[in-house]
Amino acid sequence: ALNQEKFAYVSGRNGPMEIWMRGDGYDRPLVGPAAFPTGTTNWFVAPALSPGADRLVFMRVEAIGNAFNWISSVSGGPPVRLTNESNVSEDGGCWSPDGKYFAYIRNQNGKAGLAVAKATGEVAPMVVRADVGRRLPQWSADGQWIKFLDRDGGGGWTLISPDGKTVRAFGSIDAVETTLSKDGRLLYGIRREKGQAQLFSLDVETRQMKTIGNLDDDFYPSSSLNPGIRLSLSPDGKSILYPAARGSSSLWMLEGFQ
Question: How many angstroms separate the CA atoms of 240 and 234, rounded?
């Protein structure tokens, strides 16, 4: 969450997929399949806490294949659809810093677009950019920009004003995902360079790129669902939270069985 040291994530620790929230010394479930009719939910993806950590928007993939964003209160109550559209599918997204709007990826007729909706539930969205990549957008902390992966005009990581009128493109930057710094001056990203995973920064004004450090392959961002990778900046701007898949194997000796 932008202003709280809390985060939401998906866990299968109890069997079915659930959305949990961690913070202030606790770790508890927020939403599970029981919030919807039995047998109608396949997945929960890309949960996003509001700036004050009092509301949650998440992507729900239905058993019949439909995918929509839902909004719910952290304190309880039934979730409601974020928008009122039925002829589309929706990917996850991000909150505006004032908590009034939600930006997300809207899919229709085989094309993805960047859309913005009021965070009140069951509203008509506004499409601010057509033909974008299926990556989770991010709102800048000052509310002036939305970061997304563009496909139009050559593509690449791009900033756009919430009304869609102003665009700042950075061109083709090889990164699995990116996030803006607290002051909006830097774009942080994780990429592979010469077979090595790296955390880097890009100066928004000068376009100067700097390698911050290398990452072990076990810590390369990954998700079993798309778009499921988000680089979440902590409230103090000093750390980044993201998903990674780590695996291991070992040999065991069975003895004393005779």
Answer: 6
Can you read off the two tokens belonging to residue 82?
Answer: 């974020």
Query: What's the CA gap between 93 and 139, in Å, rounded?
Result: 9
Inter-residue contact 228 to 46 (CB < 8 Å): yes
With contact defined as beta carbons under 8 Å apart, do 107 and 93 qualify? no
Token pair for 57: 């928007």
Residues counted in the chain: 258
Residue 80 β-bridge partners: 71
Token reading at 173: 């930057």
Tokens of 36: 């919807």
pLDDT in tens, 160-188: 999 999 999 998 888 999 999 999 999 99
Please give the pLDDT value at position 162.
96
Of the chain, the end-to-end C-alpha distance in Å amounts to 56
Could you identify the residue written with the tokens 């939270």? 241
The C-alpha atoms of residue 71 and residue 59 are separated, in whole angstroms, by 9
For residue 256, pLDDT beyond 80:
yes
For the entire predicted model, the pTM comes to: 0.93
Contacts 24+ apart (CB under 8 A), 13-18: 17/41, 17/43, 17/44, 18/44
